[in-house]
Write a structure and sequence with these properties.
Chain A: It catalyses: small RNA 3'-end nucleotide + S-adenosyl-L-methionine = small RNA 3'-end 2'-O-methylnucleotide + S-adenosyl-L-homocysteine + H(+). Chain A: Keywords: Magnesium, Metal-binding, Methyltransferase, RNA-binding, RNA-mediated gene silencing, S-adenosyl-L-methionine, Transferase. Chain A: It is an enzyme of class 2 (transferase). Chain A: Belongs to the methyltransferase superfamily. HEN1 family. Chain A: Its cofactor is Mg(2+). The structure holds two protein chains of two kinds. By secondary structure, chain A is of the alpha/beta class. Chain A folds into two domains: 227 residues, c-terminal autoproteolytic domain of nucleoporin nup98; 206 residues, Rossmann fold. Chain A has 15 helices and 15 strands. In chain A, strand 12, helix 14 and strand 13 form a beta-alpha-beta unit. Chain B is of the alpha/beta class. Chain B has five domains: 169 residues, P-loop containing nucleotide triphosphate hydrolases (Rossmann fold, 3-Layer(aba) Sandwich), CATH 3.40.50; 199 residues, Metallo-dependent phosphatases (Purple Acid Phosphatase, chain A, domain 2), CATH 3.60.21; 83 residues, no CATH class; 233 residues, DNA ligase/mRNA capping enzyme (D-amino Acid Aminotransferase, Chain A, domain 1, 2-Layer Sandwich), CATH 3.30.470; 62 residues. In chain B, 39% of the residues lie in helices and 19% in strands. In chain B, the strands form ten sheets. Chain B has a six-stranded mixed sheet with strand order 8-14-15-18-20-19. A five-stranded parallel sheet of chain B has the order 3-4-2-5-6, with helices on both faces. Classes of the chains: A alpha/beta, B alpha/beta. At the A-B interface, strand 3, strand 4, helix 2, strand 5 and strand 7 of A face strand 23, helix 15, helix 21, helix 22 and helix 25 of B.
């Protein structure tokens, strides 16, 4: 919201020339959603401070959010931190208010442009939701700044809520003003990891231009680029997102180690499932809970399968699966083999009837335990495919994920994770009740004493 | 039948048969509604623009059959105006009639060729030669004899122009099965199988007065002092000790009009035997034959007539009740065909034979979705139980079970135990097993069918006719329901959304009670109840007196005493221990307050607000509310101090800027206070506060027929039992036309909201209130000035902001609130009426689906 630049260069008031803003005047610049005010809290020979203050129209942000304002989560809300932080709005304000300085021009005193001056910058406040103080230091320190960061508690009345993602930042360096401004212009939105406007090709050029001479050598250049160009379009606010209650705001709490491991494991898992499906001799197969369609894509490549159906409870996910298998561009003969439909495993569904085989890959653990009985009836009592392949994580293996706290599950939406024994016991029960026979197998690399990271049960109708 | 009248059944497919020019269309126009007549000439014209285009005949008949089938499906009489002189063309019509279980009727217009030729000549568009007419005439002559064999059940042959013209009226007769005018009360009695003593006793229990030794062959005279009538589901005979006695009793009741009877398979077989048909005398028929041997020929003849005259099934009470021996699918009810008769008597089998050598019966009731209740017998069961609005009341009396009657419309079951085991059943019936499992319905309800929730749906509600659920919304609801919601058996209700009052124009306010009172005044509602609005999270509580009640009433086993769920049907608590503790406390308070006894119930569904807000909205508070507050406070403190410093420099415009940002600083401070007010830490259930505001439903009642003062008073006694957990909601009654009362209420609201309260909810005094334009909003909220900062942002009160925010539209929200309200109440009513879960779930699912409609979330 507020950024001040102070210099003790002698005479300090040269700052006025450099910024092309008169020290004794208040100047207001119009922004797309409000104003930026530029003024000088002090303008003495020995010390001169210029301030740029954002005056963002929070209501206007929502009401006439321009071309896309209302689509982004944080902009769609009236209760919004945007007016109070230094974000991409600040970058835009800097470039508008100090464009000549940023471009290294100074009509009256051109010699000042390349003078190294001592600067102190104070920003109140930056938002650094992913990275915090560490990232602030990693971004500015390599550029020669002495960085002072002050964190803030979220709410003094509720200390148990912990720290906020906001920081008051002070940067000190002896540098050229135009470099200082370019650094701020690029790095403030990088910290914030969000932009109030649509990121387009144009933005790439801006980054290259503003980053000239320093970004190429910055140790964090990859992260800076990635974050700067972040497309925060987000998902269109469809009917579903309006149903998601506050405490389920989409957060990605899974940690990286589990993520990478998961990806590798998932490929192995799908190969194993595909192998079972092929070995079963099935011609028709239904993927119950097909997700984004990885298995469907593999099934499509096998001529053995003449009819492939993918179902998922999430309509959005199905749309992604359609894209993954290039549904609309498939050749007519291929298209005839496959179809996708929304379906839930907690409702009897006649469209599940009549398949040789069904795959239920990493699905059951997303059901509440007391709903498993319903799932069992839907698949094993009514749909009754000749072969059913079910996979689920093996909880015993969790101990090997160092970053996973004891007792935690691998995904926030997992309602349970089973040991090998628990899975086997359930599978045997299913067989007894529905006249199937089952074989359970580990998935992934088996570790002595804990088994594979995941496990699979192959059911055959007797 | 009078000479100038023809009689045909009400639901028939009428084939007019006559050569070209015989006057079929004229006849059809005279006697039938325009829409009832499907003409081949018209169809030819529709598909080819030419009535006489013979090349279009194939397509024209496709269309004709299509139209006819749609009409017959809906149960509408249909007349086919085509020559129909060839047996192939008639065969397709009788087939159509069979398909829809309608009665095929033939009306032949047999007019001399000469007259037809003359008529055709007068018409320029009919230029086919006389050989065509001759050929048709020859076909017609051959046809008349064959009609009966072809399956036409009513055949009228009109042999001259005079006879055709003399017909003044075609009288439509009701089908024999149509007893819609009989609304009851009725006592429907299960399979008797010759168990005379038990039947006699049951009739007595049901209040019938049976006089034996009466006059006539049958010797019984039965009456009911309250005018009740009996309905026998058939299988009067075989296996039991006294089939003749049963027959005499039932025949005399039917004869005197005190009973109806539909035929069972055993009754039909007996008739075939009596008619000398070659039947195997087994499965208990041998006993009947022996018992009948001493009866008079006169009785046997009377018996034959009686059995012959039995109608396959009856439709009673304006179509709300169907009685058939083996039950009846919806599409067959009230119709007549061989297939209907056969289904009524034998039901359906899967074609398999079970281990006892008996055909495996297909349980049609599992898929029954009809509106009418179906009462039937045929298959002996240990207990009569409702399933999808059907009930099998054959409780195997002859096998040592009991003889059961269902009282209608009371739906009470009355039984008499068998005096003996008269026959060992081929397939054992487990009479002894204690009913410790779930009911058939509850078991069936374990699995809902996707077809009952997806796609575009129209739900009929008592309060607001039909509510339409769009497909896109049911798609969204399906995901949320199946991923997050509780076991659907708990979800008997989801609360409706609530609209705010109209936007206020008063200085500094966006909402003000004046508009809420105006709204109700404009709707003609005089008395309203203002209730303090608590700021927590909406919570619906469904809780039972004991787990046994939850099992028997909800069909839920082993999931505890009750649940507390959010407005989208998910568990309120993620923490199981906290949930258990909370439910136990609520249960204790209900028990202490004598709630179960006072309301004579074993369960309750309550609508409530659960506080603090922070217990459910922790993430939202931290990520959004507290975050914005922190950022704003830290930044603005710095801004104001810098502006203070700059102000000393006397620069033009700076003073104004200081003022502007100081105001922001104050608004942000107010904002932080506003949300902090609704937060406190929760470590155990003792830290929770529950403010119930509706006792929605208990056994046998949905309390929307009570006013809100009743609800508040009933809630008060619960609150008194545990003032630590429960919070009584402050409320007051206001006459909207009384200025003093209105002003007092406004002052009350002002004080409440200035102390940090969210605001108030204004409800019509009666739970369900109708106004000038139908259903009135069941509640309108009026939120406080400070509270609205957490909705519209810290700085919303700045006048330039308020001016813009006032531009908001409530109509979408209001319509949504009414639709959801109607659905919510409907779901509860269905649950209380013990309807199948799918019928309750349809409403609950509907509310969830409607919640995904695009409406300004700040309203």
């Amino acid at each position: 919201m507020l950024l001040t630049i102070t210099t003790t260069h002698s005479p300090a008031t040269d700052l006025g020339f450099l910024l092309h803003k008169h020290p004794d005047k208040l100047q207001s610049i119009e922004l797309s959603h409000g104003h930026a005010h530029v003024f000088y809290p002090q303008a003495q020979e020995d010390r001169c401070t210029a301030a740029i203050l954002l005056d963002i129209d929070a209501i206007g942000l929502v009401r006439n959010g321009g071309d896309r304002g209302s689509e982004s989560f944080s902009l769609g809300q009236y209760v919004n931190d945007r007016p109070y932080v230094a974000s991409s709005f600040m970058s835009v304000a800097l470039s508008k208010a100090f464009s000549t300085a940023m471009n290294g021009k100074c009509a009256n005193r051109p010699e000042l442009v390349d003078v190294l001056m001592p600067f102190e910058v104070n920003i109140s406040v930056v938002s650094a939701p992913k990275g915090g103080e560490l990232l602030i230091r990693k971004l500015f320190e390599p550029l020669g700044y002495a960085v002072t960061v002050q964190g803030h508690t979220l709410d003094a009345q509720f200390s148990e809520w912990g720290q906020s993602k906001y920081f008051t930042v002070q940067l000190k360096a002896t540098t050229k003003l135009k470099d200082l401004l370019s650094h701020l212009y690029v790095l403030i939105p990088v910290l914030d990891n969000e932009k109030h406007y649509w990121v387009s090709q144009h933005e790439v050029e801006k980054l290259l231009e503003k980053g000239q001479g320093w970004l190429g050598d910055h140790p964090e250049k990859e992260q800076i680029t990635k974050r700067y160009l972040r497309n925060i379009a987000g998902l269109t606010r469809n009917a579903l997102s309006r149903l998601v209650e506050g405490d389920d705001a989409p957060t990605n709490e899974e940690n990286d180690e589990v993520d990478v491991e998961k990806e590798k494991l998932h490929t192995k898992r799908l190969k194993a499932v595909l192998g079972e499906l092929m070995a079963s001799g099935a011609k028709t197969v239904i993927d119950l809970g097909c997700g984004e369609g990885k298995l469907l894509k593999m099934l499509l490549k096998e001529k053995q399968f003449v009819r492939i159906v993918g179902t998922d409870v999430s309509h959005r996910t199905l749309e992604k699966a359609m894209q993954r298998i290039n549904f609309y561009d498939l050749a007519p003969m291929q298209k005839e083999r496959i179809s996708l439909m929304q379906g839930a495993l907690t409702y009897r569904d006649r469209r599940f009837d009549g398949f040789d085989a069904a795959a239920v890959v990493e699905v059951i653990e997303h059901l509440d335990l007391n709903r498993l009985k319903t799932f069992e009836r839907v698949v094993f009592e009514f749909a009754r495919p000749k072969t059913v392949v079910v996979t689920t994580p093996n909880r015993e293996y969790n101990a090997l994920f160092e970053t996973l706290k004891a007792g935690d599950m691998r995904h926030t939406d997992h309602r349970f994770e089973w040991t090998r024994h628990e899975f086997e016991a359930w599978a045997n029960g299913v067989c007894d009740r529905n006249r199937y026979e089952v074989q359970t197998k580990p998935l992934g690399d088996v570790v002595e004493g804990v088994g594979g990271p995941s496990q699979m049960a192959v059911f055959k109708l007797i | 039948m009078k000479n100038n009248e023809l009689n045909i059944p009400e639901l028939s497919l009428v084939a007019l048969i006559g050569i070209s020019g015989s006057g079929k269309s004229t006849f059809a126009r005279k006697h039938f509604k325009d829409t009832e007549v499907v003409s081949s000439d018209r169809c030819r014209a529709m598909v080819s623009d030419d009535e006489n285009n013979q090349a279009a005949t194939g397509d024209a008949f496709d269309l004709l059959h299509f139209i006819a089938s749609k009409r017959l499906k809906s149960g509408l009489l249909t007349v086919i105006d085509a020559t129909n002189v060839q047996s192939e063309s008639r065969a397709s019509l009788t087939e159509l009639a069979r398909q829809f279980h309608c009665i095929p009727v033939a009306i032949v217009l047999d007019v001399p060729e000469r007259i037809c030729e003359d008529r055709n000549k007068k018409r320029s568009d009919r230029d086919f030669g006389s050989h065509v007419i001759s050929q048709q005439r020859a076909q017609l002559k051959r046809s008349i004899r064959k009609l009966k064999d072809e399956g036409f059940r009513h055949i009228h042959v009109l042999r001259s122009v005079e006879e055709i013209e003399s017909i003044e009226k075609i009288e439509r007769e009701k089908l024999y099965n149509d007893k819609k005018e009989v609304t009851g009360p009725l006592d429907i009695i299960g399979d008797v199988h010759g168990c005379f003593i038990e039947l006699f006793e049951l009739l007595g229990t049901l209040g019938y007065v049976v006089r034996t030794e009466a006059e006539g062959n049958l010797r019984f005279e039965v009456t009911h002092p309250k005018g009740r009538r009996a309905v026998f589901v058939g299988d009067l005979v075989d296996r039991g000790p006294d089939s003749p006695g049963v027959l005499k009793l039932v025949m005399s009741m039917v004869k005197s009009g005190v009973a109806f009877c539909v035929p069972g398979n055993h009754d039909a077989k007996l008739l075939r035997y009596l008619n000398g048909k070659n039947v195997l005398v087994n499965h208990g028929l041998e006993k009947t034959v022996e018992q009948l041997s001493g009866e008079s020929e006169q009785f046997k003849n009377e018996l034959k007539d009686f059995l012959h005259g039995l109608v396959s099934h009856y439709v009673f009470d304006n179509g709300k009740l169907v009685v058939a021996h083996a039950g009846l699918r919806e599409e067959m009810q009230g119709r007549g065909s061989g297939a209907v008769r056969s289904f009524c008597m034998y039901g359906e089998t899967t074609g398999e034979i079970d281990e006892f050598g008996l055909p495996v019966r297909y349980n049609w009731a599992l898929e029954y979705r009809g509106k009418a209740k179906v009462v039937y017998g045929h298959t002996p069961v240990p207990e009569a139980q409702w399933l999808n609005r059907t009930i099998d009341i054959d409780t195997g009396c002859v096998f040592g079970g009991k003889l059961t009657a269902l009282r209608y419309p009371e739906e009470e079951l009355v039984s008499v135990k068998a005096k003996a085991v008269y026959q060992i059943p081929a397939r054992p019936i487990d009479f002894e097993t204690q009913q410790n499992g779930l009911t058939h319905q509850h078991e069936h309800d374990d699995l809902l069918d996707i077809d009952d929730v997806t796609g575009k749906r129209i739900v009929t509600t008592r309060l607001r006719n039909s509510v339409t659920i769009k497909e896109e919304n049911s798609i969204a609801a399906l995901e949320v329901m199946s991923r997050f919601a509780l076991n659907p058996k708990w979800l008997v209700y989801l609360p409706p959304t609530m609209s705010p009052s109209e936007t206020s124009k008063a200085e500094g306010y966006l909402e003000h009670p004046a508009e809420a009172f105006n709204y109700f005044r404009s709707q003609g509602i005089e008395k309203v109840v203002c209730e303090e609005k608590h700021m927590g999270s909406r919570a619906v509580i469904v809780i039972g007196k004991d787990e046994e009640t939850i099992r028997t009433r909800f069909g839920i086993d082993g999931e505890g005493l009750g649940v507390c769920y959010t407005r989208t049907g998910r568990n309120f608590f993620n923490d199981t221990a906290l949930k258990k503790q909370f439910i136990a406390s609520v249960h204790e308070a209900l028990t202490q307050s004598g709630f179960w006894e006072t309301l004579n119930t074993g369960w309750v569904c309550m609508d409530a607000e659960l506080m603090p807000w922070s217990v459910k909205a922790q993430a939202l508070l931290k990520d959004q509310y507290a975050s914005v507050g922190t950022a704003a406070k830290i930044a603005l403190d710095d801004v104001v101090s810098v502006l203070d410093e700059t102000a000393k420099r006397n620069i033009e415009g700076m003073a104004h800027l200081l003022q502007r940002f100081s105001a922001k600083q104050e608004m942000v401070a107010d904002y932080t206070k506003a949300y902090q007010h609704y937060c406190w830490p929760v470590t155990s259930a003792d830290d929770l506060t529950l403010a119930p505001f509706h006792i929605l439903a208990t056994e046998g009642s949905v309390h929307v027929d009570k006013n809100h003062v009743w609800h508040m008073d009933t809630i008060k006694s619960i609150c008194d039992a545990d003032p630590g957990l429960f919070l009584m909601t402050n409320h007051r009654i206001v006459d909207v036309n009384n200025e003093v009362e209105v002003n007092d209420a406004v002052a009350w609201w002002t004080a409440l909201t200035e102390q940090g309260g969210e605001g108030m909810v204004i409800k019509p005094y009666d739970f369900v209130a109708a106004g000038k334009k139908g259903l009135v909003q069941p509640a309108v909220k009026c939120r406080g000035r400070e509270y609205l900062r957490i909705i519209y942002g810290p700085e919303y009160t700045a006048s330039e902001n308020l001016d813009r925010l006032r531009n908001r539209s409530l109509s979408g929200k209001r319509s949504l609130a009414l639709r959801e309200f109607a659905l919510g109440v409907e779901g509860l009513e269905r649950f209380v009426m013990k309807e199948p879960l799918r019928r309750v779930h349809e409403c609950v699912f509907g509310v969830l689906a409607l919640e995904s409609e695009e409406v300004d979330p700040r309203l």
